[in-house]
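Input record, target 12 of the design panel.
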C-alpha cells in the first residue's frame, strides 16, 4: 500500500446517513491488522464498531470523538509505514488520497468469495461459490455441511455451507442471488482457497444436480507430504490435509469434525481428552492442534540413542510411557524457583472441612493462577502458546506394585473444594489399582508432585511437554515446606513464577480467606449474650435478626428509642419521601407533552412533613415490634467497650425523640453486659470539613445544615447553597430545585459522584444544569461561610479562580460521612481502625477474632443495602457459614431525575483490576417508552468480561433506573453471560428490552472480534 487508505464512516444500517464518533479504539500510530476494530460510532440505532480489513498504521487526521461524520466520509487514514503516520485531529483529509470503502463486519467474507468470480464453471453459471479465505493462514478448507440444497433459491447474505478452516468451523456466505447449482463439492472434501465449491445459476431450469470430482491438487500434495514425514505434523503446517488418514474414533457422547479426527490420528491424540469449541461442543481442528499428544514422539525424534552394555528387558507400558515423557522433557528450557510455605493453617482448615490437604493445595494453585494465568499455559511447536483457562491438575500417585500414575483433577479453577475432594478420592483409589481411563490421566495443564510425606528436605520435579510448570512439595519444617516450581522459560519467566509462588504462599498460609471459616466464631464461655450488636441501623438490625433466627441469644444496643438508624430517621426514607413529592411536581411539567392540562403544582410543606414523619414513626414502630417478636433484646443506650468481652451501656442520653441523634450526658449511667461475639454497626454521621465558618454555622440559628439537621426546616427555603456533589448533596439540591428553591451546588472536585461511572456522571451534570433553578459548579474552592439562618453568605472561587459570593437562606453540607470512633473505646477490646474506619475483611471480621464490624463504620460504599448485606455476612461468619461481602457486585442508586444507578464494575474499574473487558451502550432517547414519557435523558451501559462473556457491570442514567437496576443486579450477582441475557425474553414495550438488545450486540461484537483475532 503506497497511498493512504481512507477509513470511511460505514453505512451500518439501512437508514443511517451519518454517525457520531463514540471512541477511537486505536491510537494514531498504532499498527492495525486486518479485522481490527479501530473505532466505535453511534448510528441512529446503536453504537457499532468500525472494523478495518487492511493492515497498516493508523494515521491522522482523525475525526474527533463526538463529531458527526456523514456516511462515506473520512474518519481517518491508514498508511503503510510508521514513518508516514501523521497526527492531528480534525484537519481535512489531504488531497490525492485513495478513498476506498472500509467494509464493516462480515463483508470481508463476501470480498473473499468474489475473488474468484472469474473461476471457470458450467456454461450457465452466473457466479462461482469459491472456498473463501477465512483466516490469514488458511490455504484450504474442508466442507463440513451444505446449509442449502442444490436448487435452493439463494438471496444476498445467505449462508450456503459451513467449512472447517485451520482454526474453526465457519460459514460461507454468498452475496449474490441465484439458484444453488452443482457440481457441488462433497461434504468432507478438502477444497483449496479460491477453488469452486458450487455455482449459482439464474433460473431453476439451469440447475445442475451433481457432485464435483474431488479437488485433488492440494490434497495430493498434502498427503504426499504426510507420507514423507511420518512424525507428528508440527504447528507450522497447521492446514495439512488429512486425506488418506483413517480418522480417529469419535469421542464419547460428542461430535468431532472429520478434519479434526484426521489430525487426531496423525498426532496420536485421544479425542475424549479434548474440549470442543465448535458449535454444540463439536471438536474442531484447532482444538486438536491445541491438545496435548498422548505421547510426545515428535520431541524424541532426533535425540541420539546411546548404546549401553547389559541385557535389557523390555519396559512395561507404564515404564515406557514415563521414559518417553522424560525424554520429551529434554526439549524444554526449564528453570527452578523455590519458596518456603507454612502448611499448618491449611492442614487445620482442610481437616475442619474434611478435605484432603493435596486437594486444598491444588485448589490454592488454581486460585493463584487467576493472577498468573500463564502458569497454566503451554508451549506448542512451533512458536505457539496454548492459553488455557480450565485448570486441570495432574498429581502423582504411587500405584500398587510400583510406578507412578498421574490422575488429573479437572476444573480446579471453578469447582468447589468439596466436589474436587470427592473426585480426587475416587481417582486415587482407581489410580492405585491402575484402573483409570485414558482421559483421567492425560491432558493435565499443571502438575504437582508431593514428597513431603517421605521427609525429603528438597527436590525438584521434571516438567514435560504440554504443561508450563510442575510443583514439587518437600517435607514441612519450622521454616515451612519448600515449594519448588520447575517452569518452561518459553511460557513463563522467573518473575512470573516468583510472584505466583508469593501469591500461592498467601493463599496457603491464610486459607480462611478462600476456604471459609473453620467453624462457628462463638468462643466457649458464659456470657450474658451470645452476640451483642451495637447499632440499630440496617447493618445491625439485619445481623441481629439473622442471628436470632438461628437461635442465638442476641442483644441489639441502639442509642435511640426505635431501631432504623440513619437510613430510617435521617437518610434513605425521609429523603425519598421528599423525592416522591418532587417527582409529582416534576412529572406534571410533562403532562402537556401528552395533551393533559393539569396546571401549576404547589407544595404544602406542612402536609409533606406530616406525611414524612408519620411514615418514619410507623416504620420505626414496626421494626421494634419485629425485633422483639424474634426475641432480640432491644437495649436503648450508647455502648462502649470495657474489655474484649464486656460493653458498658450508657443510658444517660436516652430520650423519646427518634427523629434526631441522641447525645450522651456528662454523667454516664447504665449497665455492663458481657458477650461471646460483638458486632459493631454504629454507622457514620455527616462529616463537615474545616471550611471557615462551616462548623460554627452548625449551631442553633447558624444557617448551616447537614443530613442530620435538614429535617428541622420549618418552611421551604427560597435560596440554598449545597456544598458537595456526592449522592446526598445532589439529591438534596435537585429536590429543593423541584420544590421551587433557587439552588447552587458547589463541588471541590472536577466532577460529581466519584463512585459513579464517569460518562454517566458527566451526562448527569449536563442534565442537572438544564434544570431551571439549579446550577452545578465543579472545581470550586469554598473560602468562607458566614451569617445566620435566613441570611448566609458563601464565598468561593470558581475553576478560573474568579471570586464569588452567594447570599442564601441556608447552606446544606453534603460533604460526606465519617465514622466517629472515639466514644466506642475500641482500644479496650483491641479492635484496630485505620483512617477513621474500623478495619474489617470480606467476612466482616476485625483483627479480633470474635468482634465483627459492618456498614458505614467500615467505610467503602456507605449505603443501606451494603450495611444490611454485611450484617448478614457477619451473622453467617459467626454461625460458621461461608459467606463474603463482594464489593464488585454491589450496587447503588442516586435518586436524582434521571436517576443514576450502577452495579458491579465500570470499564475503567474492570481494566484497572486486570480484566479484559468491553462495554456497550445505548442512549435512552431511542427507546419508545422513554419517548412517550418524555424521559429521554441518559443511557444504559453493560460491561462484560471478554473472556468469560460474563456481565460484570451495568450502569444507568435513566428515569426509573431504581427499578431497572434490579434486573442488572441479578445479571451481575448471578454471573450471567451476555448470551443468557441476550436470549432471555424481555416484555415489550419496556425498557428492560434494552438489556437484551445490548447483551446481544456486545455478544456478537465479541464473537466477531474473537473470530477476526483467531485468524
Ligand atoms: C440523606 C441521606 C440519604 C440517603 N439515602 C440512601 C439511599 O437512598 N440508599 C441507601 O442505600 N443509602 C442511603 N443513605 C445512606 C444510609 O442511610 C446509610 O448507609 C445506612 O444507614 C448505614 O447503615 P448502618 O447500619 O451502617 O448505620 P446507621 O444507619 O447509621 O445506624 C447506626 C446506628 O447506630 C447508632 N449508634 C452509633 N453509635 C452507637 C453506640 N456507641 N451505641 C449504640 N448505638 C450507636 C446510631 O445512632 C444509629 O442508630 C442515605 C444517607 C443520607 C444521610
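The sequence produced for target 12 reads:
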Amino acid at each position: 500500500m503506497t497511498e493512504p487508505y481512507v477509513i470511511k464512516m460505514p453505512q451500518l444500517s439501512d437508514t443511517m446517513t451519518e454517525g457520531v464518533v463514540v471512541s477511537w479504539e486505536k491510537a494514531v500510530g498504532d499498527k492495525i491488522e486486518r479485522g481490527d476494530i479501530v473505532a466505535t460510532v453511534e448510528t441512529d440505532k446503536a453504537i457499532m464498531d468500525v472494523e478495518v480489513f487492511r493492515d497498516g498504521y493508523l494515521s491522522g487526521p482523525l475525526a474527533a470523538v463526538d463529531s458527526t461524520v456523514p456516511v462515506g466520509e473520512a474518519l481517518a487514514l491508514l498508511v503503510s509505514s510508521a514513518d508516514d503516520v501523521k497526527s492531528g485531529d480534525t484537519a481535512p483529509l489531504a488531497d490525492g488520497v485513495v478513498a476506498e470503502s472500509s467494509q464493516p463486519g462480515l463483508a470481508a467474507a463476501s470480498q473473499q468469495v468474489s475473488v474468484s468470480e472469474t473461476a471457470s464453471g458450467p456454461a450457465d453459471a452466473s457466479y462461482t461459490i469459491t472456498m473463501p479465505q477465512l483466516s490469514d493462514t488458511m490455504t484450504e478448507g474442508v466442507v463440513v455441511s451444505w446449509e442449502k440444497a442444490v436448487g435452493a433459491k439463494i438471496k444476498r447474505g445467505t449462508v450456503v455451507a459451513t467449512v472447517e478452516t485451520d482454526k474453526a468451523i465457519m460459514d460461507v456466505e454468498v452475496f449474490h442471488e441465484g439458484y444453488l447449482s452443482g457440481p457441488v463439492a462433497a461434504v468432507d472434501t478438502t477444497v483449496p482457497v479460491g477453488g469452486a465449491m458450487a455455482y449459482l445459476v439464474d433460473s431453476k431450469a439451469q440447475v445442475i444436480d451433481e457432485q464435483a470430482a474431488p479437488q485433488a491438487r492440494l490434497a495430493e500434495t498434502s498427503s504426499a507430504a504426510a507420507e514423507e514425514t511420518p512424525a507428528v505434523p508440527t504447528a507450522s503446517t497447521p492446514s495439512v490435509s488429512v486425506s488418506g488418514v483413517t480418522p480417529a474414533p469419535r469421542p464419547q457422547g460428542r461430535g468431532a469434525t472429520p478434519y479434526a479426527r484426521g489430525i487426531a490420528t496423525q498426532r496420536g491424540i485421544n479425542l475424549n481428552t479434548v474440549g470442543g469449541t465448535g458449535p454444540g461442543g463439536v471438536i474442531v481442528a484447532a482444538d486438536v492442534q491445541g491438545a496435548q499428544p498422548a505421547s510426545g514422539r515428535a520431541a524424541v525424534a532426533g535425540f541420539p540413542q546411546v548404546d549401553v552394555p547389559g541385557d535389557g528387558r523390555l519396559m512395561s507400558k507404564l515404564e515406557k510411557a514415563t521414559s518417553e515423557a522424560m525424554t520429551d522433557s529434554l526439549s524444554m528450557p526449564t528453570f527452578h524457583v523455590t519458596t518456603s510455605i507454612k502448611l499448618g493453617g491449611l492442614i487445620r482448615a482442610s481437616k475442619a472441612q474434611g478435605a484432603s490437604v493435596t486437594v486444598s493445595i491444588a485448589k490454592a494453585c488454581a486460585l493463584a493462577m487467576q493472577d498468573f494465568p500463564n502458569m497454566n499455559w503451554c508451549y506448542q511447536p512451533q512458536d505457539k502458546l496454548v492459553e488455557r483457562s480450565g485448570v486441570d491438575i495432574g498429581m502423582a500417585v504411587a500405584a500398587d506394585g510400583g510406578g507412578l500414575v498421574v490422575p488429573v483433577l479437572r476444573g480446579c479453577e471453578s469447582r468447589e473444594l468439596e466436589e474436587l475432594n470427592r473426585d480426587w478420592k475416587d481417582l486415587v483409589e482407581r489410580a492405585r489399582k491402575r484402573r483409570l481411563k485414558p482421559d483421567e490421566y492425560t491432558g493435565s495443564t499443571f502438575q504437582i508432585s508431593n514428597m513431603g510425606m517421605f521427609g525429603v528436605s528438597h527436590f525438584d520435579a521434571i516438567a514435560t511437554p504440554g504443561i508450563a510448570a510442575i510443583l514439587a512439595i518437600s517435607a514441612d519444617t519450622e521454616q515451612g515446606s519448600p515449594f519448588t516450581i520447575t517452569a518452561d522459560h518459553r511460557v513463563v519467566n522467573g518473575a512470573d513464577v516468583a510472584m505466583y509462588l508469593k501469591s500461592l504462599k498467601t493463599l496457603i498460609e491464610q486459607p480462611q480467606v478462600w476456604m471459609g471459616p473453620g467453624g462457628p466464631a462463638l468462643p466457649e464461655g458464659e456470657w450474658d449474650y451470645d452476640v451483642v450488636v451495637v447499632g440499630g441501623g440496617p447493618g445491625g438490625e439485619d445481623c441481629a435478626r439473622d442471628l436470632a433466627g438461628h437461635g442465638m441469644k442476641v442483644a441489639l444496643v441502639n442509642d435511640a428509642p426505635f431501631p432504623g438508624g440513619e437510613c430510617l430517621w435521617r437518610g434513605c426514607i425521609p429523603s425519598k419521601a421528599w423525592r416522591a413529592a418532587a417527582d409529582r411536581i416534576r412529572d406534571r411539567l410533562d403532562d402537556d407533552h401528552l395533551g393533559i392540562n393539569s396546571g401549576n403544582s404547589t407544595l404544602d410543606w406542612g402536609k409533606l412533613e406530616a406525611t414524612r414523619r408519620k411514615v418514619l414513626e410507623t416504620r420505626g414502630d414496626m421494626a421494634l415490634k419485629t425485633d422483639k417478636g424474634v426475641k432480640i433484646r432491644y437495649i436503648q443506650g450508647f455502648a462502649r467497650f470495657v474489655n474484649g468481652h464486656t460493653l458498658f451501656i450508657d443510658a444517660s442520653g436516652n430520650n423519646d425523640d427518634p427523629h434526631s441523634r441522641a447525645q450522651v450526658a456528662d454523667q454516664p449511667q447504665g449497665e455492663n453486659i458481657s458477650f461471646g461475639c460483638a458486632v459493631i454497626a454504629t454507622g457514620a454521621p455527616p462529616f463537615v470539613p474545616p471550611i471557615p465558618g462551616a462548623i460554627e454555622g452548625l449551631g442553633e440559628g447558624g444557617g448551616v445544615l447537614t443530613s442530620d439537621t435538614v429535617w428541622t426546616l420549618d418552611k421551604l427555603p427560597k435560596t440554598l447553597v449545597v456544598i458537595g456533589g456526592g449522592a446526598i448533596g445532589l439529591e438534596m439540591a435537585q429536590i429543593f430545585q423541584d420544590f421551587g428553591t433557587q439552588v447552587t451546588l458547589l463541588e471541590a472536585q472536577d466532577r460529581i459522584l466519584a463512585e459513579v461511572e464517569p460518562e454517566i456522571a458527566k451526562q448527569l451534570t449536563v442534565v442537572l444544569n438544564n434544570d431551571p433553578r439549579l446550577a452545578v459548579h465543579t472545581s470550586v474552592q469554598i473560602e468562607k461561610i458566614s451569617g445566620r439562618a435566613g441570611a448566609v453568605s458563601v464565598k468561593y472561587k470558581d475553576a478560573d479562580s474568579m471570586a464569588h459570593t452567594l447570599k442564601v437562606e441556608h447552606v446544606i453540607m453534603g460533604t460526606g460521612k465519617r465514622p466517629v470512633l472515639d466514644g466506642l473505646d475500641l482500644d479496650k477490646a483491641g479492635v484496630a481502625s485505620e483512617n477513621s474506619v474500623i478495619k474489617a475483611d470480606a467476612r466482616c471480621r476485625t483483627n479480633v477474632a470474635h468482634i465483627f464490624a459492618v456498614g458505614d463504620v467500615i467505610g467503602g460504599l456507605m449505603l443501606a443495602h451494603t450495611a444490611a448485606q454485611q450484617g448478614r455476612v457477619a451473622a453467617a461468619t459467626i454461625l460458621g457459614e461461608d459467606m463474603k461481602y463482594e464489593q464488585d457486585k454491589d450496587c447503588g442508586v442516586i435518586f436524582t431525575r434521571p436517576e443514576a444507578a450502577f452495579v458491579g464494575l465500570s470499564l475503567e474499574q474492570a481494566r484497572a483490576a486486570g480484566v479484559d473487558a468491553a462495554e456497550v451502550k445505548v442512549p435512552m432517547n431511542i427507546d419508545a417508552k422513554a419517548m412517550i414519557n418524555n424521559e429521554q435523558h441518559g443511557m444504559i451501559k453493560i460491561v462484560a468480561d471478554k473472556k468469560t462473556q460474563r456481565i460484570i457491570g451495568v450502569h444507568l442514567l435513566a428515569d426509573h433506573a431504581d427499578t431497572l437496576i434490579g434486573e442488572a443486579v441479578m445479571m451481575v450477582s448471578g454471573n450471567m453471560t451476555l448470551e443468557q441475557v441476550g436470549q432471555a425474553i424481555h416484555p415489550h414495550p419496556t425498557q428492560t428490552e434494552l438489556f437484551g438488545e445490548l447483551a446481544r450486540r456486545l455478544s456478537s461484537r465479541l464473537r466477531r472480534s474473537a473470530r477476526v483475532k483467531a485468524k
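The chain has 25 helices and 48 strands.
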